[in-house]
Each structure stands twice: as C-alpha cells, then as structure tokens.
Write a structure and sequence with these properties.
- The protein is an alpha/beta fold and about 400 residues long.
- The chain has helices at about 35-40, 45, 50-60, 70-80, 95-100, 135, 160-165, 225-240, 255-265, 310-320, 395-404; strands at about 15-20, 20-25, 90, 105-110, 110-115, 120-130, 145-150, 150, 175-185, 190-195, 195-200, 205-210, 215-220, 245, 255, 270-275, 285, 295-300, 325, 335-340, 345-355, 370-375.
- Strands 1, 5, 6, 7, 8, 9 and 10 form a seven-stranded mixed beta sheet that branches. Strands 2, 3, 15, 16, 17, 20 and 21 form a seven-stranded mixed beta sheet that branches.
- The chain starts with 16 loop residues before the first strand and ends with a helix.
C-alpha cells in the first residue's frame, strides 16, 4: 500500500466543513523565491502608515487598555474580507494549524463542503462527504444554511460558519452535536442535528456493473486520489472492463495537482488538462502525464460537482474522451486559491487565478451543461451514495449510452 504523499506544491481544501475550492500553491516561509518576496513587500512602509496612525490614536486616546494582538488580528481579517471574496481569508496561527490538519483527509467534523450562492449571497451546501455526519443527518447538495445553533449566518460569514459547524472552540469536538437550520428548494426552513465524528475520506469507489461496463466514482481529490484511481482501474481491467462510467456527482473538488494526475489516466501524454491565468495575464499550463486508459466512457455530473471535478470534466470533454456528459449542470467554480503561511505562524488563502478548460472556457458562475440532461426525482431526498442502481436513473442512462 502506498504511503500518503507529502503536500509540497498543492494542498486540498477538504476540511471538516469548509468552502469548496481548488488549491495549487503552498509557499513555505523562508523558501519563497527572493524576487517574489521583494514584490510582495515592495512599498510596505507606505502601505502600513495608515494602520500605524490608527494604532497610535487608539493607544493615546482610547479610554481602556488596547489589546494589541486582538487589534492586529481583527485588522488582518478585515483586510482579507474587504475584497468581498469568500475564499480569501486570514487565519491566525491556531486557525491555520487546524486548517492544515483538515486537509489530510482524516479529521473530526461534520463532513460538509460549503460555498456561497453568488446570486443570493447565501451559504449553500456543495456536497456532504459519503457516510459523514452531514450525510447521515440528511443534508443534501443545494441546501441553504440559514443558522447554526440558532444564530443566523450569511455568505460573508462563510469561514465563521464552517468553524462553528466544525466545533473549533471545543477542546474535543468528537461526539458533540451542532444544530443547523436549512432551507431546501423553496420549502420552509427546518432543523437538523449533526453529531461530529472522526472522518477518514475514501475518495474512490469502483465496481463492474454489467456486460464489462465499469463504474468509477470519485468523491473528492486529496493528495492520494490519483493513486486510488490507478488501483481501481487496474482492478476493473482485471475483471474484464471494456467500457467505463466515470461518476463525479457531488464531487466538490480539492487538490488540482491530484486532479490533473487523475486526468492523465484518460488522456494522451502532453494533452492540456487546464490552464490558469492570473490578473497580469500570466498563464500556467497543466498537461497529462503517464499511461492512458482508452476504453469508451460516459461521465456523470450534478450541481454538487465543483472546482477540480469541473476541471476533469472540461478536459475529458474538450479532448473528445467521453461519449456523453450526463446529469445536471455542475456547480460553476472556476477560480483557484493559493495557500500561504505567514511568518507569524498564521496563514492566508487568496484567490489568485481563474482556470480554463483546454478550449479556453472559464465556467466560473456558469457551470458545465451536460450533453444529456437527466433530472433526479425531486422528492427522492437521497444522496448519490444512498441510491440503489434501480433508483439511479442517471447511472442507468450512462450505462445505456455505452451499450449503444
């Protein structure tokens, strides 16, 4: 069994409960290229003069004693929040430590990926992880989170909401409960109680369905997902797989590098998988490496397919590797966050680029439209992982198209 890769250039945001994101950069303090440091801190004195002036006035005039640490932390958080991007955040040292722990795929929490619904500014569930406390409590993709433990929450409180649900203020959150108020579709709000527990993510499932048709489900991308995919494909091929349904439903994304290594299993050497473009127009291309599995494929997506899973979908679509995309429109997250430690021990996540499919499409706020739309029955009220084959009409359609 292969050991977990150490995360060096990319870490997956798959924390206990967090926001859906694709991450690609991880700079270690003291190892950042000097030229980059000089650009980052150029003009620093002039930029901080206003903050220094406010600090001096507070020290001199404020009635009570000023807590310097609390003031600086509040200022740092406010600076990150001022851009209005829910994915750009400052974390103090304790928060950043917990954040990094949550990227390992082995943690205590409720197992729900959150994002912000751009049209309404509400906090929305991208997807709960399979067999997580959120899944067991009945949380579904698309649910709107209105309150946590009776306190109302909004989109500008995304990080705070994740922390409350995770139980970061509790010394040992394992076994503790949290209540959330959700709205589903256009119905009335209702409460759900979730019991926090230890979660170890298994991101790949596979089986032979019928007539040599394999089924490969990827529920997220952590640092080892591509290894799990390789093992699953080898097993399916040993069982006589001749065609494949690739299932990315309710996959909220994660580690972009792992996603690209996975894409390389289905593309030709050197094929462009995606490219990112920053505010200066600088592009970085990600290309396929390694062996390619050339069996005919269909691909399943839904509204819980976000970020890195949309990267994989776009790459396979643009290179003509799939007979059809089946399901419903994907989530539509086409921006990338860098993860940066600070000398203080804290850190930041910063939206630093958009990503594009090989054909040049950015799906941010748009999503990917399937070739064959198959809506799941609205009253079904089940997660993808809870469906039997007879109930799963999207999977049935994927098999039907491959049989043709």
């Amino acid at each position: 069994m292969q050991h977990k890769r150490k995360l060096v250039l990319a870490i997956v945001i798959s924390a206990v409960v967090t926001f859906a994101a694709t991450t690609v950069l991880y700079f270690s303090v003291g190892k950042v290229i000097p030229a980059v440091l000089s650009k980052v801190f150029a003009g620093r004195s002039a930029q901080v003069s206003l903050i220094g002036d406010v600090k001096r006035y507070m020290d001199y005039f404020y009635l009570d004693k000023v807590d310097d640490a609390a003031m600086l932390e509040a200022g740092a958080k406010a600076m990150a929040q001022s851009v209005g991007d829910p994915y750009t955040k400052y974390y103090n040292p304790e928060e950043f430590s917990r954040y990094k722990e949550g990227t390992s795929g082995d943690y205590v929490g409720v197992g729900i990926i959150l994002s912000v619904k751009e049209q309404t500014g509400e906090i929305v569930v991208v997807a709960p992880y399979d067999n997580s406390p959120g899944a067991r409590a009945g949380v579904l993709p698309g649910d709107i989170i209105l309150a946590v433990d009776g306190q109302a929450v909004t989109g500008d409180m995304l990080n705070e909401t994740a922390k409350k649900m995770r139980g970061t203020d509790i010394a040992n959150p394992n076994g503790t409960q949290v209540s959330i108020t959700v709205r589903r579709d256009s119905g009335e709000p209702f409460d759900l109680t979730l019991t926090r527990s230890h979660i170890e993510m298994i991101t790949v499932k596979a089986s032979i369905l019928q007539d040599g048709i394999g089924w490969l489900r990827i529920t997220g991308f952590d640092s080892d997902t591509d290894i799990e995919v390789s093992d699953a494909l080898a097993s399916l091929q040993q069982q006589g797989m001749t065609r494949l349904v690739l299932d990315l439903r309710d996959n909220p994304g994660g580690d972009l590098n792992s996603c690209c290594r996975t894409a390389g299993k289905f593309l030709q050497e050197g094929d462009v998988i995606t490219y990112t473009e920053d505010k200066s127009g600088k592009r970085e291309y990600y290309k396929a490496e390694g062996a390619s599995v050339s069996v005919p494929m269909t691909l399943l997506i839904n509204g819980g397919s976000a970020s890195a899973s949309e990267v994989l979908t776009g790459a396979l679509r643009d290179h003509g590797r799939i007979a059809a995309i089946i399901g419903t429109k994907s989530f539509g997250k086409g921006i990338v966050q860098g993860v940066y430690p600070l000398p203080s021990g804290g850190g930041m996540t910063i939206t630093m680029a958009k990503y594009y499919s090989p054909s040049g499409e950015c799906i941010h706020g748009i999503g990917i439209q399937p070739d064959t739309v198959v809506e799941m029955p609205g009253a079904q009220g089940k997660l993808i992982s809870q469906l039997s084959y007879d109930e799963d009409i999207q999977l049935q359609k994927g098999v039907q198209i491959l049989k043709k």
